[in-house]
Amino acid sequence: MHNSALSPKEDLNYYFRSAFSVTCVIFGLEGKSMKVLLVKRNREPYKDQYALPAGMVYPNDSIEKRVDSIIEQVSGTEKFYKKQIRAFADTSRHPLGRVISIGYYSFLNMLDCTLKAGEDESEIIWMDLKSLPSLAFDHNDIVQAANRRLLAKMSSQLAGFELLSEKFTLKQVQEMYEAALGHSLDKRNFRRKIVSQTVIEETGELLSPWDESGKAPMLYRLNKQLYEAMKAEGHKFEIF
Amino acid sequence: MHNSALSPKEDLNYYFRSAFSVTCVIFGLEGKSMKVLLVKRNREPYKDQYALPAGMVYPNDSIEKRVDSIIEQVSGTEKFYKKQIRAFADTSRHPLGRVISIGYYSFLNMLDCTLKAGEDESEIIWMDLKSLPSLAFDHNDIVQAANRRLLAKMSSQLAGFELLSEKFTLKQVQEMYEAALGHSLDKRNFRRKIVSQTVIEETGELLSPWDESGKAPMLYRLNKQLYEAMKAEGHKFEIF
DNA sequence: ACAAAAGTGTTCCTATTACACCCATGG
DNA sequence: CCATGGGTGTAATAGGAACACTTTTGT
Fold first, then answer.
1. What is the Cα–Cα distance from B63 to B185, expressed in whole angstroms?
2. Within 13 Å, how many C-alpha atoms sit on residue B141's CB side?
3. pTM, rounded to two decimals
4. Do the strands B81-88 and A218-222 form a parallel or antiparallel pair, or are they unpaired?
């Protein structure tokens, strides 16, 4: 397959017998609870078990594009944030041979999603991060690693707005943080901190429709251009 | 590279045509400057260029063990800390085919090292992190990612003691932090912060031999058992 | 008028910063 | 006795944490 200038005694082709895949931990937020998107597999191995959305990658395909296509396919939206966690490479993680999987985590807005099972799965479902079943392969480990990354990120920074709608209330932001961090926060201190960030701006609109009693809350927005620009300048948006 | 006219859906073996490698960013500390261990390659591709220590991994070998063996082989010591950065997977990163590389960074004590070029390299050398040459493959990217991790870790936590000898002076710790963070720190505030960590203990000994004028500095030690135990309990050793 | 949620300030305390001199040693 | 590096304390400030009531609106 690969013609190289190397000395022939080195059996280079022997190395080219691994496969790799990508595995996605897709986070969604529903009120105060963090959800993870799972699929029920309709093929071996691990047929009929829940698993993370994942897919093999062809030797000449881009990993990032493969991740994008998996997330789009399974969630039905093209609007999401994603980032690599790390490679998961235990020799025994896949029963069919050496398959290294590159884990990604992703944030998206559940309201943008249309879940429709494709040919690789019999079911697509949101499940609560705190009560996941036993998953196929090493997917529980991957979720755990993703959860640590989520925690690390949100413990210090302003982040995760991909989980919310474009316009959001401060309460939604607070609930997002409470879900991510696993503990509750002081309302006044939290609001002060968020509003004092220059990238969070008032829209002037109120949330509507508003069924609850009391007054409708103010809607805010993240100034994405400014946010990206400041991030590019090295600003860390530390809020804790 | 690969014949895409195949109908790969049915041909699972088609996936098993990738290779993977590990690539190590080995950090060492010399006074106030952070060093990286490089090898000069004596084979194609990138013959005679500097590169990070790296190696292909056989399909049935453990990644972690391969990393250990590379670091041991190139540095001559078995005492080091290592951690995965992430997978580097650009389709064009390796001229011989699809080779995903899993990047690791590592800390070790330069004084423990015996650099002796093996059969894969014509030279092994420490170079200053701040003035690295252009490296083979995407190794400059990998160094940059490792550097970000180093910065992120040391910006908040008590860490990096693998870079020092078992007994160290507080000045050495401060210089390590200054090298990692890239700016200088207030001596008194820094010392206070370090000494106030329960895991840092006095040895009662003074540094010797001591050639400089003035009095010889006190030697300290990290209580590794306690450090690991507290880390296992979730303690983060935040010092900034 | 009452129930339910939104929104708003102040005080206290802890943690961080800034800063300069004396001491011990060797030449 | 002087040059060099080690080692130490305090005061001012800023940031984080704790805390309760008033306003609005729909029923």
1. 38
2. 12
3. 0.94
4. unpaired
Rounded to whole angstroms, how far apart are CA atoms B97 and B134?
22
A103-129 pLDDT, tens per residue? 999 999 999 999 999 999 999 999 999
Which residue places its CA closest to the C1' of nucleotide D18?
A: A186
Cβ contact, residue pair A20, B100, below 8 Å: yes
Distance A220 CA to C1 C1' (A): 33
Q: How far is the CA of A44 from the C1' of C13 (A)?
A: 60
Buried residues in B203-235 as b, exposed as e (16+ CB within 10 A): eeeebeeeeeeeeeeebbbbeeeebeebeeeee
CB B206, CB B219: distance < 8 Å = yes
Same domain flag for B134 and B204: no
Counting the structural domains of chain A, the total is 2
Nearest-angstrom CA–CA distance, B160 and B84: 15
Domain end point (choices B113, B141, B169): B141
**What CATH number does the domain containing A198 carry?**
1.10.10.10
Whole domain around residue B128: which residue ranges?
12-141
Digit-by-digit pLDDT tens for chain B (240 residues) are: 333 344 444 567 889 999 999 999 999 999 999 999 999 999 989 999 999 999 999 999 999 999 999 999 999 999 999 999 999 999 999 999 999 999 999 999 999 999 999 999 999 999 999 999 999 999 999 999 999 999 999 999 999 999 999 999 999 999 999 999 999 999 999 999 999 999 999 999 999 999 998 999 999 999 999 999 999 999 999 999
Contact A5 B44 (CB under 8 A): yes
- Residues B62-85 pLDDT 10s: 999 999 999 999 999 999 999 999
Provide long-range contacts, Cβ within 8 A and 24+ apart, for B42-47: B42/B119, B42/B120, B42/B121, B42/B122, B43/A6, B43/B120, B44/A4, B44/A5, B44/A6, B45/A5, B45/B94, B45/B95, B45/B96, B45/B136, B46/B136, B46/B137
B19 and B108 inside one domain = yes
| Through-space separation of residue A181 CA and nucleotide C26 C1' in angstroms | 57
End residue of a domain, out of A141, A166, A187? A141
CATH number for A22: 3.90.79.10
Same domain, residue pair A63 and A116 = yes
B133 and B201 co-located in one domain: no
Rounded CA-CA distance A143/A91 in Å is: 19
Q: Are residues A89 and A178 in the same domain?
A: no
* B84 and B186 belong to one structural domain: no
- pLDDT tens for A143-196 read 999 999 999 999 999 999 999 999 999 999 999 999 999 999 999 999 999 999
A120 secondary structure, DSSP code? T
- In this complex, the nucleotide whose C1' atom is nearest to the CA atom of residue B216 is D6
